[in-house]
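This protein record is not my work; I was only asked to verify it. Would you go through it and say whether the fold makes sense for this chain? Here is the record exactly as it was handed to me.
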Amino acid sequence: MKYLMLVCTDTAPDTDPEAAPDIEAWVAERDGSGQRVLGSRLADVSAATTVRVRNGELLLTDGPFAETREVIVGFDLLECTDLDEAVEVARRHPMAYEGRLELRPLVDL
């Protein structure tokens, strides 16, 4: 099953950031196991453009639509047998210590 893991900042990181694993090691291990299908950091939130259509009119907004201090800074597409495996993959990611990770299963259309 595929899961999208959104990598987000957080206003309350772990008090011991030294405990966070190395990101390069995490990527190499996940890529080697086949659990990480694709992933990337995102450009700064200032480069975002929000697209909406309301009453047939195109509305573009610079930056994210939501006003928040927590932002999505990256993503990983995971291939896991179930949610438990996806949680194990996420708990080893450095941003589990410094930010937060949101797991969402992909839905077949």
Q: What stands out?
A: Residues 1 and 81 are 6 Å apart (CA to CA). The chain has a mean pLDDT of 91. The chain is about 20% helix and 35% strand. The chain has one domain: 2-105.
